[in-house]
Amino acid sequence: MNLREEAEAREYQFLCPKAAHAAESLGRDREEEPCQIRTCYQRDRDRILHSKSFRRLKHKTQVFISPRGDHYRTRLTHTLEVSQLSRTIAKALRLNDDLCDAIALGHDLGHTPFGHAGERALDRVCKELCGENEGFTHFEQSIRVVEVLEKDGRGLNLTKEVRDGILNHRTSGTPHTLEGKVVRYCDKIAYINHDIDDAERAGILTEDDIPLKFRAALGKTTRERLNTLITDVIYGSLALETEDIRMSPEIEAAMQGLRGFMFKQVYSNPIAKGEEPKAAQMLQMLFRYYMENPGELPEEYKRLEETRGDSRGRVVCDYISGMTDQYAIEKFEELFVPQGWKW
Q1: What are the C-alpha distances in Å from 27 to residues 11, 32, 34, 40?
Q2: Which of 52, 82, 90, 208 is 20 to 30 A from 290 (CA-CA)?
Q3: Where along the chain do its domains lie?
């Protein structure tokens, strides 16, 4: 009995016609013998879940750098929330929740330490030293992680649909599957709402600070807002007979307005972001050091330049972006902070 084939057959019974069916996947760059138990998207999800880059997300900043509290989000908990929201929507729309899960779990694998501050810092210094055509973005790096960096240069060999969803999860992205579009929405829904929750926990915001028009449209608590947004995506997409993934114009406008409010009040808040210039300077100093001292890179990164012909700037970005917050601090202290003399 081939359990994978049975699972693929069930997809044709239960998923909507526009869903991504595993049996019709465009496949992988390197052909593999199919699993006897799991569909290709289930297999991709497992590969991401067991990867080193996924485990490192638990020690990477979401919004607040090294928060002193057990309940603030990290890049890992953000990823898990995106996964949960996307599976909820996928099940309601009879889309492939395995594909949604794989995309969601992999969408931030290439993120830097210290969140978007780290991403901006690496982008600036890479362009400065290596030219405008180099640069750094976390969504492109996530693809590089799964195609090249994992498994000592062999990558995870994920399906094209999963990689497409990871690459296009950003606001300006254009996913080619409905499942990728679901994750694209859920990424924003998750971070807007959990960042409000964390900002309230940090004493930066209160519910009364959120403009009344957004609270009236979306809800007065994180739970109410999540329910409003998720429900609206589901019914907005059902109204189109799941030809596309959409929110109603009113709710989407309110969500975008709330997002703009968060950029002004939290993402640019000097209290919340006071440590970011230090983190940015630290990563830029690390970048310059390894550009000048490539022999100090770990062997697996040296091989990328030596055997693949990747540029030094790209390889240095690979190393630094893969660091956790704490590891980046430790490397900085090792390289730039004088140590006490030991007998």
Answers
A1: 17, 9, 10, 8
A2: 52
A3: 48-331
How far apart CA 262 and CA 301 sit, in angstroms, is 37
Higher pLDDT, 155 or 243: 155
What's the CA gap between 16 and 94, in Å, rounded?
5
What are the tens digits of pLDDT across the range 174-186? 999 999 999 999 9
Specify the pTM.
0.96
| Distance separating alpha carbons of residues 88 and 27, to the nearest angstrom | 25
Reported as a pLDDT band with limits 50, 70 and 90, residue 1 is low
> Between helices 75-93 and 97-106, what is the axis angle to 10°?
160
- Name the CATH superfamily, with its identifier, for domain 48-331: Hypothetical protein af1432 (1.10.3210.10)
Strand blocks (E) in 73-228: none
- Strand runs labelled E in 246-313: none
- In contact, 72 and 62? CB cutoff 8 Å: yes
- Rg, Å, the chain Cα set: 21
pLDDT, tens digit, 9 for 90 and up, residues 265-297: 998 888 777 889 999 999 999 999 999 999 999
Q: Which residue has the tokens 């807002």?
A: 225
**Which residue from 173, 153, 40, 162 is spatially nearest to 100, judged by alpha carbons?**
162
Q: How many CB atoms lie within 10 A of CB 173?
A: 17
Tokens, residue 318: 């690979």
Q: How far apart are the first and last CA of the chain?
A: 67
